[in-house]
Amino acid sequence: MIQKVKCHCDKELELDIPEMIDLDSKADLVSTITSGQFLASICGFCGATVRPECQLELRWSRFERPIWLVPEMDRALVLHGKADAPKSHEILVGYAELIERVNVLRSDLDPKTIEVIKYYLQSKAEETDTDGEITVLFGGLDTNRLQFRVSGYKSGETGLLHITMEKYLEIKADFKRLSLTEPFKMIFSGGYQSIRKAAVLET
Ligand SMILES: [Zn+2]
């Protein structure tokens, strides 16, 4: 499928993007996601890196179900339940969420437990920075601790928070009970299972 992408230099590029990508089909595909080079092309006019903003189906043996990747610019549609995604697929929005998911699965962690931890971290950060638009993303494992990147502080700073593996396992063991209570019941319903839905309900 040919996708037209506008570069910063105002030139329009035509990129040939498959409608479905199987991450098991090529050895280095998963690494291109974590390095931020997934689907990236170089603009022939100015040399900048450009990436398509299109919907895309992704399959990988490590995904629980196929992923329907929606571009960041369509986040509002997803948050309001208006994304045009197949019911059988899980929705992720934007490359940052895709990178996070791949990092979580490569670290042999459970995406839903990670989402619960992010909810607690985000709530805590929002207590101290009530004007910010806090976003928390899993950043990787760091000597048996889970690392999370926090951005959106009013000051413009980003922060790193760590959770011990013991704490992770404790929350994972309690997940079933937690998932039946709000806001997790709402967060883990439907195709898009993200704590970013909680912020929409609050406003
Ligand atoms: Zn360009």
- Separate helix tally: 8
Helix amount:
25-40%
- What is the averaged pLDDT score? 92
Across the major sheet, the strand order is 3-6-7-8
From the N-terminal CA to the C-terminal CA, the straight-line distance is 38 Å
* Portion in beta strands: 15-25%
Integer-rounded radius of gyration: 18 Å
Shape summary: globular
- Secondary-structure-based class equals alpha+beta
Output the helix-strand order. EEEHEEEEHEHHEEEHHHH
Ions, cofactors and other bound molecules: zinc ion
Main sheet properties? 4 strands, mixed
Q: How many extended strands?
A: 11
As residue ranges, the low-confidence spans are: none
Give the count of structural domains: 2
Structure description:
This protein has 203 residues and is an alpha+beta fold. It folds into two domains: 2-106, no CATH class; 111-202, no CATH class. The protein has helices at 29-34, 75-79, 94-106, 111-128, 165-173, 175-178, 184-187, 196-202; strands spanning 2-6, 12-16, 20-22, 41-42, 49-50, 56-59, 67-70, 90-93, 135-142, 145-151, 159-164. The strands form four sheets. It has a four-stranded mixed sheet, covered by helices on one side. Strands 9-10-11 form a three-stranded antiparallel sheet. It has a two-stranded antiparallel sheet with strand order 1-2. A hairpin with a 6-residue loop joins strand 4 and strand 5. 18% of the residues are buried. The mean pLDDT is 92. The site of zinc ion has 8 residues, from loops.
